[in-house]
Design brief:
alpha+beta; binds glutathione; Glutathione S-transferase Yfyf (Class Pi), Chain A, domain 2; EC 2.5.1.18; glutathione transferase activity; Glutaredoxin
């Protein structure tokens, strides 16, 4: 049987605790039950140098990348969509045109709005000399994306009402909030959603995300 190769930065030994974007691919691969093998990369040695051999596979030098029998694909959102489309019985991406568009809307939102807001806050906080005003404004911008997510989760267990690649794309990143010292109690729908995700065996196969969840265990409950 064909094995999918996943280029990933694993949690153990990585200064940043592993690739959360890579975890999205791990979770989806676990969900669909397809055989895969992890090709573990070292962030500093294999990803960062612009002349590293991995750049031939992914010119961005980031993870994840998959190799499905010679078909190379990078960008976590595109990988989630590909894996779900290749395995329609997983139900992770509906076939109905409009339902599908809604799921993809949230996957795109993660890449274009949510993750950048989180990263801007992270970089402001971890700057060698953090600028108070920048920390405050980037924090406010990220909290506003959390507000959008919390509202979307009101009255439903998952972002689109049912478990989909939108939950994988956004959930794998959301728990980083705990490492940034954020109090998510004003966003109770997010906390109960994270509690549901944390229980899934597919998520438990992604140690980087599990460790972020662990950092928030007092809040998640
Ligand atoms: N937009 C990309 C972002 C991928 C990304 O930034 N991956 C990080 C880990 S989560 C990475 O590999 N960083 C390499 C580095 O820090 O040098 C995606 O969603 O796949």
């Amino acid at each position: 049987m064909n094995m999918i190769k996943l280029y990933h930065i694993e949690a153990e030994g990585d200064p940043f605790g592993g690739s959360r974007n890579g975890c999205k691919a791990v979770i989806a691969l676990e969900e669909i039950g397809v055989g895969y093998e992890i090709n573990a990369l070292d962030r500093m040695a294999d990803c960062r140098p612009t002349d590293a051999p991995y750049r031939q596979i992914n010119p961005n030098g980031v993870t994840p990348t998959i190799d499905d029998n010679g078909f190379i694909l990078w960008e976590s959102g595109a990988i989630l969509q590909y894996l779900a489309d290749a395995n329609p019985s997983s139900g992770l991406l509906p076939t109905d045109l409009k339902e599908r568009a809604k799921v993809l809307q949230w996957v795109a939102w993660e890449g274009a709005s949510f993750a950048p807001a989180l990263l801007n806050f992270f970089f402001a906080m971890t700057a060698p000399e953090p600028d108070e005003a920048t920390v405050a404004s980037t924090k406010e911008a990220f909290l506003s994306t959390l507000g959008i997510l919390n509202k979307q989760l009101a009255g439903q267990d998952y972002i689109c009402g049912y478990y989909s690649i939108a939950d994988i794309a956004i959930g794998a990143i959301t728990s980083l909030s705990f490492l940034l010292g954020l109090d998510l109690s004003p966003y109770p729908n997010i906390l109960s959603w994270l509690a549901r995700l944390r229980e899934k065996p597919s998520w438990q196969a992604a140690p980087a995300v599990m460790s972020d969840m662990e950092a928030g265990k007092e809040q998640i409950g």
